[in-house]
């Protein structure tokens, strides 16, 4: 690329600022900061910065879980969701979703195809999740259960093809392109599983699977799967490698799952039930995703949960990326924004509870028992019923679960009266488990205050606070936790993200303005490490062609993924969290954030570094003087990581994934007074070798 003189000057200035230098025109009196190295504060919790996962925006099916076939077992409410007959079934005499002698009770539907004459169009196509992303020469395992019926069907033709472009009138402008093909023969009159490997001849982001009968007659199909062999750790039911790598690179302290409102469901029948998500993948029954019709302007009726990514896989993922698992369980309440349906409480457990209820209706005790069974599944020995289920799935060792969330984002007296018996039952059987309680969906107000007061009285270990607000709210509330109690219940900033427009709007961007404002707020979290022990941005993932909510931390399509500026803010905090908080004093007793300069500091005993985080929310370069008060020994070379953009509206994209990304440089350390110049609109992490 040819750089014109002004671009060269800008590049030179940027490099100088990354190195802690500044051109003469950028010099100004330095702002003085004092880091009290000899007066360390609270330890930084290992769980301080983590991940919030929810199956929204096609985050699981079509995203982290890389099964390419949608509705592979014909078990969704719309039995043929994701499937369409070739040329309107003109070559088929009949097709039907049948339950005549199925594979099993939990997989009771299959597709029956009948052709009177042989035809290359006698079959069905599956488009996957907004297409199927396949890589040239990569290996994909195709598997299917087949049963031959009357007639002379000799086999099943399997093709992976890239659809041709269509002209305005719908006519083919370019032909479909076959990427891989094979034929399955040796059919049986009883159900039999077949597996073959497909190797696409080219890369395609929107391929599709085409299945046709070889011959005339009837053939039954079920559990149709196309799964990449290259998964995280090469597991048979593994996860998408590039997405897991982005998570692992963050070095998260915890993974909260499976949500989010997904936990609650629109109704209790639609709630997430963890027991339905373990065991043989082929027997896990799909469920309508509660986000498929939440927003009329993002109506997504084809959004279901297959549960191929279930609770066992969540625990396994937590282990893989070094994160504490934090499962959140339903407390007997459907989403209060939807039906607000309640599971009844026995009269002994609550004065407002009904005495009787239908025999098949779940009560609060049902939900409590699910929680107790989950802890046994995660931590129990092989001799326990649920521990044995974990062992049978291939994980003999316990997952060492330490946290469990009771309710997602519930509020009001109905939540409080359910929480208390739920918490008591868990603590009675598993006193070492830390309970995460809900403060509701808002960061203030009477309901928030009531929940906070009651949860502290009940001695909940962690209280989950949520806030989605404009970028300026995050800068203005950097001192939110300065006056919180230092004893008792700790804080989990469980869901937060700066909003540049209305929530779920296409104009709500992952801009640098949003990200740098979150960085400013996070210095306040770090300064209050004696009160805040967990924090996570939300939501985590979004498919560029199938999202329901904005903004999101990581975006992807069927082939590629990128981290937003917000992702890099989270990553820089997490990978530089240190071990002990160090108090930071601003000049003349100013508060953190005065004149739009935000700061926090930690000691990293593992590396021997003092880590100072600085946010300059200003269009001008800003020199700072950092007094490392009480430091015993200093190295001579520091490391600076700078995340900056002159354009507060800058974003990353699939085409420009590193438009706003960290840049590393060095700077000299000559004394305990460290001089550094912050770039305009920047978040800077300084690592200074020094003993305390």
UniProtKB/TrEMBL annotation:
<dbReference type="InterPro" id="IPR017853">
    <property type="entry name" value="GH"/>
</dbReference>
<protein>
    <recommendedName>
        <fullName>non-reducing end alpha-L-arabinofuranosidase</fullName>
        <ecNumber>3.2.1.55</ecNumber>
    </recommendedName>
</protein>
<dbReference type="InterPro" id="IPR055235">
    <property type="entry name" value="ASD1_cat"/>
</dbReference>
<keyword id="KW-0732">Signal</keyword>
<keyword id="KW-0378">Hydrolase</keyword>
<feature type="domain" description="Alpha-L-arabinofuranosidase C-terminal">
    <location>
        <begin position="494"/>
        <end position="682"/>
    </location>
</feature>
<dbReference type="InterPro" id="IPR051563">
    <property type="entry name" value="Glycosyl_Hydrolase_51"/>
</dbReference>
<comment type="similarity">
    <text>Belongs to the glycosyl hydrolase 51 family.</text>
</comment>
<feature type="signal peptide">
    <location>
        <begin position="1"/>
        <end position="26"/>
    </location>
</feature>
<keyword id="KW-0325">Glycoprotein</keyword>
<dbReference type="InterPro" id="IPR013780">
    <property type="entry name" value="Glyco_hydro_b"/>
</dbReference>
<dbReference type="Pfam" id="PF06964">
    <property type="entry name" value="Alpha-L-AF_C"/>
</dbReference>
<dbReference type="InterPro" id="IPR010720">
    <property type="entry name" value="Alpha-L-AF_C"/>
</dbReference>
<dbReference type="Pfam" id="PF22848">
    <property type="entry name" value="ASD1_dom"/>
</dbReference>
């Amino acid at each position: 690329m040819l750089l014109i003189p002004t671009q060269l000057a800008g590049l030179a200035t940027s490099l100088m600022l990354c190195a802690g230098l500044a051109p003469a025109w950028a010099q100004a009196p330095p702002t003085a900061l004092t880091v009290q190295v000899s007066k360390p504060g609270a330890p930084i919790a290992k769980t301080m910065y983590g991940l919030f996962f929810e199956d929204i925006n096609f985050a699981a099916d079509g995203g982290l879980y890389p099964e390419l076939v949608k509705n592979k077992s014909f078990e969704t409410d719309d039995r043929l969701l994701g499937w369409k007959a070739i040329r309107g079934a003109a070559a088929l005499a009949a097709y039907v979703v049948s339950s005549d002698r199925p594979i099993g009770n939990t997989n009771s539907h299959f597709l029956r195809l009948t052709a009177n004459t042989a035809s290359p169009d006698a079959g069905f196509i599956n488009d996957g999740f907004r297409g199927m992303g396949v890589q040239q020469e990569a290996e994909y395992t195709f598997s299917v259960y087949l049963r031959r019926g009357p007639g002379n069907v000799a086999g099943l033709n399997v093709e992976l093809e890239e659809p041709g472009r269509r002209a305005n009138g719908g006519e083919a402008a370019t032909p479909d392109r076959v990427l891989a093909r094979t034929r399955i023969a040796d059919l049986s009159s009883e159900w039999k599983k077949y597996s073959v490997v497909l190797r696409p001849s080219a890369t395609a982001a929107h391929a599709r699977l085409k299945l046709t009968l070889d011959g005339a007659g009837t053939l039954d199909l079920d559990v149709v799967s196309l799964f990449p062999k290259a998964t995280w750790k090469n597991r048979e039911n593994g996860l998408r490698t590039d997405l897991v790598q982005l998570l692992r690179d963050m070095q998260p302290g915890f993974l909260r799952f499976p949500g989010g409102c997904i936990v609650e469901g629109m109704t209790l029948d639609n709630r997430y039930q963890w027991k339905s998500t373990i065991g043989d993948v082929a027997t896990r029954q799909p469920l309508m995703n509660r986000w498929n019709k939440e927003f009329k302007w993002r109506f997504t009726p084809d959004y279901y949960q297959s549960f191929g990514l279930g609770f066992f896989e969540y625990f396994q993922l937590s282990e893989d990326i070094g994160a504490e698992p934090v499962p959140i369980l339903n407390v007997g309440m459907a989403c209060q924004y939807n039906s607000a349906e309640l599971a009844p409480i026995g009269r002994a457990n609550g004065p407002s509870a009904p005495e009787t209820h239908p025999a098949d209706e779940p009560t609060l005790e049902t939900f409590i028992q699910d929680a107790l069974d989950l802890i046994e599944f995660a931590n129990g020995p092989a001799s326990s019923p649920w521990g044995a289920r974990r062992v049978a799935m291939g994980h003999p060792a316990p997952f060492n679960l330490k946290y469990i969330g009771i309710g997602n984002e519930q509020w009001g007296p109905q939540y409080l009266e359910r929480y208390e018996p739920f918490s008591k039952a868990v603590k009675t059987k598993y006193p070492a488990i830390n309970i995460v309680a809900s403060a509701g969906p808002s960061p203030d107000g009477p309901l928030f205050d009531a929940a906070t007061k009651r949860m502290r009285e009940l001695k909940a270990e962690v209280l989950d606070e949520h806030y989605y607000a404009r970028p300026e709210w995050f800068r203005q509330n950097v001192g939110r936790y300065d006056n919180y109690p230092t004893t008792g219940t700790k804080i989990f900033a469980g869901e937060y993200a700066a909003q540049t427009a209305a929530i779920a709007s296409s104009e709500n961007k992952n801009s640098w303005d949003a990200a740098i404002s979150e960085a400013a707020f996070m210095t306040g979290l770090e300064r209050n490490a004696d009160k805040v022990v967990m924090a996570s941005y939300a939501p985590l993932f979004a498919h560029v062609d199938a999202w329901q909510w904005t903004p999101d931390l990581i975006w992807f399509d069927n082939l590629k993924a990128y981290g937003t500026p917000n992702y890099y803010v989270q990553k820089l905090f997490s990978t530089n969290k240190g071990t002990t908080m160090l108090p930071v004093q601003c000049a003349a007793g100013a508060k953190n954030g005065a004149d739009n300069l935000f700061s926090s500091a930690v000691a990293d005993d593992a590396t021997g570094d003092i880590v100072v985080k600085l946010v300059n929310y200003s269009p001008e370069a800003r020199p700072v003087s950092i007094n490392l008060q009480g430091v015993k020994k200093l190295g001579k070379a520091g490391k600076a990581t700078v995340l900056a953009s002159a354009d507060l509206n800058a974003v990353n994209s699939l085409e420009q994934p590193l438009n706003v990304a960290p840049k590393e440089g060095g700077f000299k350390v000559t004394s305990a007074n460290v001089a550094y110049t912050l770039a305009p609109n920047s978040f800077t992490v300084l690592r200074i070798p020094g003993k305390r």
